[in-house]
Amino acid sequence: MRRGLKQALAALAALGVLGPAAWAAFTPVTFDAREALFEIPKGTWARRMAGDPVEILPSEIHLVLEVRDVLLLRNLDDVPQVFGPTILMPGQSFSLPFEQASSYQFACTAHASGQMTVVVDEHPNTPWARLRWRVVRLWKTVRWSS
Amino acid sequence: MRALLLVVALLATPFALAAEGALKAGVFSPPRQAPAFSLSGSNGAPLTLADHRGKVVLLGFGFTSCTEVCPITLGTLARVHRLLGAQAADVQVVYVTVDPERDDAAQLKRYLGAFNASFLGGTGSAEALAAVRKDYGIMATKVAGPDGAYDHSSFVYLIDRDGRLRALMPYGREAEDYVHDVRILLAGR
């Protein structure tokens, strides 16, 4: 009886690991849009003037070729804003497509480091590549949030 | 059958045109008028954007002592000029210095001429250049040290024949990407 219970628990544990791994390996990497959108909301300038250090763009942005490979920046505020690598007028947007996997550095005064990095990954289109991509993303997310 | 092929071709045309018309550079929407400036040109004459209305202007910022970014960007732009062939007559490269202490008109002419004799440099007072950089969202910070180098924005703006700031080409893109986009802008799209 006890041996049977052990085997059942081992099978459950194996399923608990293999199930998510199988999902991560065989489910295609998709996004709702090719564009990774970042917006400066209305009132951002006023908030900054009031001493609120509003952070909109992360210092590192991750994109994936073919499925999420366009950086889209939009200024919804009432004043021009330096956003990412450039300056955007009120109501203006900036759309930058990427065609090669690489790490791109942009000068960006909005960040304390003075730099913004866009990391563009190859589209993970094999089971192993999907699994690896998801594990790396999960690891980075956990690391940043801790 | 022929009618079916015609219908398919007609339906596909807008998609083909859309793909062809998509710039490889980062695109501003809606495009705004490129900020005007008046600087000293490397040819000894005043340099304004308005002088080049009707041409596509490739506008970059840098300094002649730059050993990393500027030679690569200008080398790429020289290649763009060659690849464009006769169309290059409708394109003007303008390179504005971020280092007014060392880059006077003569120095800019010498430096840019090594890449292409038609390239124009722009210089002026520190205040005038800072105002241009502010209008274009250009960052330039002097690096501490004996070299007097600058960290600076390394992209190139694409300005269309009507003087509108249409796009921004990030540093490191191939000359073929520029040629692709310049031809779209020259065609008035």
Explain the layout of strands and helices.
The complex is a heterodimer of chains A (146) and B (189).
Chain A: H1 2-26, E1 35-40, H2 44-49, E2 60-64, E3 70-75, E4 81-83, E5 86-88, E6 93-97, E7 102-107, E8 115-121, H3 127-145
Parallel strand pairs in A: 1-3, 2-8
Antiparallel strand pairs in A: 3-6, 4-5, 7-8
Helix pairs in contact in A: 1-3
Chain B: H1 2-21, E1 26-33, E2 38-41, E3 46-48, E4 56-62, H2 69-84, E5 91-97, H3 105-113, E6 120-123, H4 126-136, E7 140-142, E8 150-152, E9 156-159, E10 164-169, H5 175-186
Parallel strand pairs in B: 4-5, 5-6
Antiparallel strand pairs in B: 1-10, 2-3, 2-6, 4-9, 7-8, 9-10
Task: Summarize the structure in words.
The complex is a heterodimer of chains A (146) and B (189). Chain A has 146 residues and is an alpha/beta fold. Helix content of chain A is 34%, strand content 28%. In chain A, the strands form 3 sheets. Chain A has a 3-stranded mixed sheet with strand order 1-3-6, with no helix packed on it. In chain A, helix 1 crosses helix 3. Chain B starts with a helix and ends with a helix. Chain B has a single domain (2-186), classed as Glutaredoxin, CATH 3.40.30. The longest helix of chain B has 20 residues, at 2-21. In chain B, the strands form 2 sheets. Chain B has an 8-stranded mixed sheet with strand order 1-10-9-4-5-6-2-3, with helices on both faces. A two-stranded antiparallel ribbon of chain B has the order 7-8. Chain B is α+β, with helices and mostly antiparallel strands and 189 residues long. Chain A binds chain B through residues 71, 82, 85-89, 91-97, 99, 104, 106-109, 114, and chain B through 22, 24-30, 32, 135-137, 139, 141, 151-155, 168, 170, 172.
